[in-house]
Design goal:
Heat Shock Protein 90, 5 strands
Length: 379
């Protein structure tokens, strides 16, 4: 959870100060008789619903939770007005804030209109003013709706824009790091690889030209062996640098899925990984993303990477067409082989109703066979 999100919840709670008309109505005895406990319960429930939304409800996906929250707060606002017998627009301001902040722009405008219309109806029913003053009060409702609802919409837009800018900066940094790694790998291969290859060839030629038993022949052979080992190490290092990184593959997956019109949700909590494990998980993300784009027809795709009971797990879940279980293609077979080198497993199956799940699991302490991944990546 970011610092802004953590403190933003507490800042949002200051909106409860708008409930002062309820406290005033209770202290001044405006609410009397059997309505007093009902009024108190309604005010407490109103506050609890808003506090719950600030701390938990705002994280929910979809429109069900914010819609229910706005509807509940609006109904409770109407109840508070009628129980006190007085019109107070303050009770409707918090639903306006929730509607403006929680909904996408078009639905937010609809929500603001409905809450504003309810407020206007309360003015007409409870204000008991002459027609001229009633019209004036109704007109004054509009600035409140625009001010509170509009400010919440603007705040949501600014926060979304800030989040996108941060994500863009992180993606640029990741791409820059990836490009630098590829440049180092290319230069290392072109420079050291070429030089060490020439040294090896010259050494082999020298051992052929030198007579058997001549002094220094063993040293020349040692030079050839060392140059071969150095060349092999350079090739292994280059293969490692050219392997996909998990951050790069997640960024590429997000861009590719969004370009295909698929909403994507990425959750990553793996922490630091060794190079071989990160490379295999990167291949999993790449292959799964390709399959989602080509075969699923999905509208939403979730990519989750986490640790469960000491195991590293990557799960790619989409809501596309339900497809029967078929023999694995070349891509999935290749993933299965890569995972097997790390002692991992691959599960790919259609969901009961719709969608498809691909899940790869690796032991958190697994070590690959020597150079197995590098050899595979350098083919």
């Amino acid at each position: 959870m970011s610092l802004g999100e953590r403190w933003g919840r507490y800042v949002a709670l200051t909106a409860l100060a708008l409930m002062w008309p309820a406290v005033e109505a209770y202290l001044q005895g405006i609410v009397r008789g059997a309505a007093v406990p009902i009024f108190g319960v309604a005010a407490v429930v109103y506050s609890v619903v808003y506090v719950w939304y600030c701390f938990s409800g705002f994280r929910s996906h979809g429109l069900a939770v914010p819609s229910a929250t706005v509807g509940a707060l609006t109904l409770l606002a109407v109840a508070l007005d009628h129980l006190s017998g007085q019109m107070s627009a303050n009770y409707f301001l918090i639903p306006l804030l929730v509607a403006g902040f929680s909904f996408p722009p078009r639905r937010a405008l609809i929500g603001l209109g409905l809450v504003g219309a309810t407020t206007l109806m309360e003015v007409i029913l409870l204000a008991r003013l002459p027609i001229a003053e009633l019209v004036l009060q109704a007109v004054l409702v509009l600035p409140g709706v625009v001010l509170f609802g509009g400010s919440a919409m603007v705040l949501r837009y600014l926060l979304d824009t800030l989040s996108q800018l941060r994500a863009a900066r992180a993606e640029i940094a990741q791409h820059a790091a990836g490009q630098e790694r590829y440049r180092i790998a290319r230069d290392l291969h072109d420079l050291l690889g070429h030089s060490l290859s020439l040294i090896t060839l010259k050494g082999e030629l020298a051992t052929r030209l030198l007579p058997e038993g001549v002094h220094g022949a063993d040293e020349v052979r040692d030079i050839v062996v060392l140059s071969r080992d150095a060349l092999q190490q350079v090739r292994e290092a280059v293969s490692g640098y050219r392997q996909p990184t998990l951050a790069t593959e997640l960024t590429a997956a997000r861009v590719a899925l969004q370009a295909a019109g698929i909403e994507v949700d990425v959750k990553q909590s793996l922490g630091a990984l060794d190079r071989e494990t990160e490379a295999v998980l990167g291949w999993v993300v790449r292959e799964a993303t390709t399959n989602v784009i080509r075969h699923s027809g999905a509208k939403h795709c979730g990519i989750t990477l986490n640790r469960i009971d000491g195991r590293l797990q990557v799960e790619v879940l989409n809501d596309g067409w339900r497809v029967p279980q078929a023999p694995a293609g070349n891509g999935l077979r290749g993933l299965d082989e890569r995972l097997a080198l790390l002692g991992g497993t691959l599960e790919a199956a259609a969901l009961p109703e719709a969608g498809f799940r691909l899940r790869a699991t690796i032991l958190g302490t697994a070590h690959p066979q020597p150079n197995a991944i590098d050899a595979e990546a350098s083919r």
